[in-house]
Amino acid sequence: MPRAKTDQDRKIFVLDTSVILYAHNSIMNFAEHDVVIPITVLEELDQFKKGNDTKNFEAREFIRLLDTLSKDQMIHNWTPLNGKTKGNFKIHMNPDSSINANMIFGEEKNDHKILNSALHLKQTEKNRRVILVSKDINLRLKAKSLDIQAEDYETGKIKNLSEIENTGKFILEGIAPEVINTLYDQHSVEAKHILGTRKRKSNAFYILKSEKNSVLSYYNAEDNRIERVDKRLAYNIKPKNAEQTFALHAILNPRIKLVSIQGVAGTGKTLLALAGALEQRRDYKQIFLARPIVPLSNKDIGYLPGDIKSKLNPYMEPLWDNLKFIQNQFKESDKEYQKITELVNQEKLVIQPLAYIRGRSLSNIFFIIDEAQNLTPHEIKTIISRAGENTKIIFTGDIFQIDTPYLDSQSNGLSYLIDRVKDHPLYAHIKLEKGERSELANLANELL
Prior knowledge:
InterPro entries: P-loop_NTPase, PhoH, PhoH2-like, PIN_dom. The protein is an alpha/beta fold.
C-alpha cells in the first residue's frame, strides 16, 4: 500500500466484525491510514467474547487491544494508533444519515448499521476516501450497491496460488539412463547429478524420466542426496499413484514432522494419513484425528437433536468411515482388525472435533487434522505451536472447497501454511491429483 503524501490522501477504513474475528490485530495493518470501528461491531464482539473457539479468542484479544490503545481517552474521537507510522482510529456511534441502509434493504440488521456508518463517514468526510473492509462477500456487494467502496481484508492473503499448488512435486525429463539405473541399484545418488544448479527444495519429490524409464524420488536435504521412493504398504493400504506414493513417504518419514496434503474429495488424503498413523502406532503415545466443526447450512449444531455426542456424530462420520475402510482390509479374526478396536477402546486412537483437542498438550502424538482449509491462519499456528517432543502433524484438505463464509482459497489456514513453511527441512507438501475413490466419484469431480 503506497504511503499517503497528504492528509487528504489518508484513507478511512471501516472494519466489519468479520475482519476482527479473522485477525484481532487487523486494526494495526492499515499503514498510516485511519481506521473506524462502528459501535455495532463492538456490540457484536460482546456476543463472541465467551467461549473457547478461535473467534472467541480473537474477540477477547481485540477488546483488550482497544482498551490498551485508548489509554483512558474517549475513543469516539480520533485516537492515535501505536507507532509513528500508524494513523488514528475511533469508534463510530450509530449515525443519522440521509441514506438509511435499513430502509433501502427493508430490514433492520447489524450489517445495515455498519453500512450506515460507512455512508455517514462518506458524507461527513467528503475529501477523503472511505472504504468498507469485510470478509463477508454479501456485505461487500451491498456496500457497492450503495456506492461505497468495499474490499476484502488482504493482509496474509496468498497472492499466487499457482506457486503453492506446485510446491512439493516436480517432473524432470531428459535424465541420463545411467543415473536412473543407479537409483534403482543403489537407492540414492548425489543431488548434483540430477539437480545440477537447480534450486534445491527440502523434502521435494521428483518424477525423473529418461527416454525409456522413470523413477519416483525425493530430495533428502540433510544428506544432500536424491533417494528412490518405493511404493509401501501402510496397514494394508497401498498407494495407487505417484502422488499417493509421495504422500505416504512423507507421512512415514520420521525426519519430517509436519505434512500437508492437498487434493479434491476422493484422492485419499485422510485415508493415507490414518493408515500411516496406524503403521507407526508404536512410535507414538496416541493418534488424534480431528476436524473443525462447520455447521450445516449456517445453522448452529444446537438445532440438531440429542446430547452433545449425538450432535457431533454427523460431523465425525467421514473420519470413522476411513477407519472402518482400513479395518475392513482384514478379517475380524485378524490381529490387525482387533488392534484397531483395541486402540479405540483404550483411547489410544481418538476421533474428536478439533475444539475438543485444542489446548491439550501435543507431546508424543500423531495428530491428523482433516478439512484444514476451514481453519484460519491463527488456528493453524495455534495447533502447530502446541507440538511437543515426538509429535507429528498432518494437515489434509482442499483449498478450493471452503465451507466457512469468511475464508477463501487465498486466506484459509491451509493455504497460509503451505505458503509460509515451504522448503523448511521439517515440512513436506504434496498435492493429490487423481481421484481413487471410484469411477463415479471421478465423474463428479471432473464433469459436475
